[in-house]
Design a protein that fits this description.
Blueprint: E1 4-6, E2 11-13, H1 23-52, E3 58-60, H2 63-66, E4 69-72, E5 77-80, E6 83-85, E7 88-90, H3 93-99, H4 102-115, H5 129-178, E8 190-192, E9 227-229, H6 266-279, H7 313-330
Helix pairs in contact: 1-3, 1-5
Length: 331
């Protein structure tokens, strides 16, 4: 008995061709054809809408929305629903192109013949070539119109940018024309404002701009007794900082010829490090209370603490043992 593999049910049947007339196979066939008819109806409705208004079939491309696929049981593969042209998505263009192609029509005839489907449902899963041609022409017109609108929008944006730059240049030129020329100060450190009629001259204040608002600073509030700080090079006798004319620290020669030391020396750092190490050692170690101030000579050894401080070495040993025993009793 021949084994039949059903691509629709995705299983092998040992009853031969009788599997195609079984209830399970017929139910699966109806479900698949219903899904294909629904997708075909949606594609043909989109084609009719595009023929009436081509802009409805053109959208900005979004991968999450326009990368979907539709399963075609006749061809046995997934078909992209929407087409793509650059950064634009063409709604239902991919599915319509597949349903109107000769390969799908040939595979649909084979599928109907093998599965003994109803002949009346076959045309509902196909798209006529004339209908697809009308859809393609409407789509080309929609793409041309969209491209023209984009070019007009880009030109308008460029014109707005040029207009904004022109206004900015005019504003800067008007501000430069209204700004008075600064007067040079003759004094070494301060500059005084002129008193009397010279102080109230038109050069000392800004004229109002085109908008009726004052664009420059108003200096009429300053009294003649007040002075302005002179910003410039001032000669100071070695005081101040580099901005006031003083010498920088690295150019000042030391009077005593010795270099000023900043922070502790290397020897002090080593001594401090040695003290830190000694703090981590046990307190009752040999030589902990070494007397560094005792006078020593070649004929006598110095004191090493707990060894030769009092008596001989055996006395220090007995003393250490007695202290250790007292500590054990305390525990």
């Amino acid at each position: 008995m021949a084994v039949l593999y059903c691509r629709l049910c995705r299983r092998s049947a040992f009853t031969g061709r009788r599997h195609r007339y079984s209830a399970g196979h017929r139910q699966r066939l109806r479900e698949v054809l219903a899904q294909l008819q629904e997708a075909t109806a949606a594609a043909r409705a989109a084609a009719a809408a595009a023929a009436a208004d081509g802009s409805s079939a053109v959208r900005r491309y979004d991968p999450t929305e326009h990368d979907g696929r539709v399963w075609c049981p006749c061809c046995g593969r997934g078909v992209r629903r929407d087409g793509r042209r650059g950064g634009l998505a063409l709604l239902q263009a991919g599915l319509l192109q597949h349903l109107a192609g000769p390969e799908h029509r040939r595979e649909t005839a084979r599928f109907w013949r093998e599965n003994r489907a109803e002949a009346a449902l076959r045309e509902r899963c196909l798209v006529p070539a004339e209908e697809y041609e009308h859809f393609a022409q409407a789509l080309e017109r929609a793409l041309a119109e969209h491209q023209q609108r984009e070019e007009e929008r880009i030109l308008q944006i460029a014109a707005d940018i040029r207009e904004a730059e022109r206004r900015q240049r005019e504003t800067v030129q008007a501000a430069l024309q209204l700004q008075p020329e600064p007067e040079l100060c003759a004094g070494p450190s301060v500059c005084r404002l002129p008193a009397g009629p010279e102080r109230d001259s038109p050069c000392a204040s800004e004229e109002p701009g085109p908008s009726g608002m004052q664009t420059g600073p108003d200096l009429t509030w300053m009294e003649s007794s007040k002075v302005l700080t002179f910003i410039g090079h001032q000669e100071t006798e070695g005081k101040g900082n580099v901005h006031t004319g003083a010498k920088p620290p690295w150019l000042i020669e030391e009077e005593d010829g010795s270099q000023q030391q900043i922070g502790p020396s290397y020897e002090e750092f080593l001594k401090h490090k040695e003290k830190q190490k000694l703090k981590k050692l046990p307190v009752e170690r040999v030589g902990a209370n070494f007397d560094h101030t005792c006078q020593t000579s070649d004929s006598w050894l110095p004191s090493f603490g707990r060894v030769w401080n009092h008596g001989r070495r055996w006395q220090s040993r007995h003393q250490f043992r007695s202290e250790s025993g007292e500590k054990k009793k305390k525990r």
